[in-house]
Design brief:
- By secondary structure, the chain is mainly beta.
- The protein contains 1 helix and 12 strands.
- The strands form 3 sheets. Strands 1, 4, 5, 6, 8, 9 and 10 form a 7-stranded antiparallel beta sheet that branches. It has a 3-stranded antiparallel beta sheet with strand order 7-11-12, with no helix packed on it. It has a two-stranded antiparallel sheet with strand order 2-3.
- The mean pLDDT is about 90.
- It has one helix at about 10-20; strands at about 35-45, 45-50, 50, 55-60, 75, 80-90, 95-105, 110-120, 125-130, 135-145, 150-160, 170.
- The protein has one domain (about 5-170): Hnrnp arginine n-methyltransferase1 (Distorted Sandwich).
């Protein structure tokens, strides 16, 4: 039930319903107890064997070697990794993601994708980022924006937990 960014799976909706029906109480321990969603804006290579592919893709660098047969996903970040949502599963979680931030471009180029990543806080002292089978980073194509070194880019990110990556909207100016 837990997917990168909490957008594709129903973790938030299910836990909110369980809380509304009083199945969960203050003494219920949930693993993970918290989750953070991050985005980076950048340039992704969106072609695959000569075709332009505008679909979300998992970004698992650990599989990108000659022996695996996995085609490596290239992503050049233009922005810092920015936290856009925090979910505390001990409480009702707002399913709508809405965040704004700005950054200064470190180079010239075209921003055409975001890298969506997350961190699941399993306990107060143990966290889990991307692994081979859980919470893998995703590269999601967005409307491109040409940028110059030193340019300030303003970003607005919106989405809704449990409504899929189709609900994800990124606007840049």
């Amino acid at each position: 039930m837990l997917d990168t960014g909490l957008l594709d799976e129903t973790q938030v909706l299910a836990l909110n319903q369980l809380r509304a029906r009083r199945v969960l109480s203050e003494s219920t321990r949930l693993i993970p107890g918290r989750y953070e969603t991050f985005v980076e804006l950048g340039a992704a290579r969106l072609d695959c064997y000569g075709f332009r592919v505008l679909l979300p893709a998992h970004h698992w660098p650990q599989h990108a070697d000659a022996e695996s047969g996995w085609l490596p996903m290239r992503f050049q970040p233009f922005s810092p990794r920015t936290c856009v949502a925090r979910a505390d599963f001990r409480r009702v979680v707002e399913p709508r993601l809405s965040a704004q931030f700005s950054f200064v471009c470190a180079c010239d180029g075209e921003i055409n994708a975001i890298r969506l990543s997350g961190c699941a806080h399993l306990t107060g002292r143990m966290s889990l980022g991307p692994t081979n089978s859980f919470n893998g980073d995703k590269i999601v194509p967005i409307d491109p924006l040409r940028v110059r070194h030193g340019q300030v880019v303003h970003v607005e990110v919106r989405g809704e937990c449990g409504r899929g990556l189709d609900s994800l909207q990124v606007q840049m100016s």
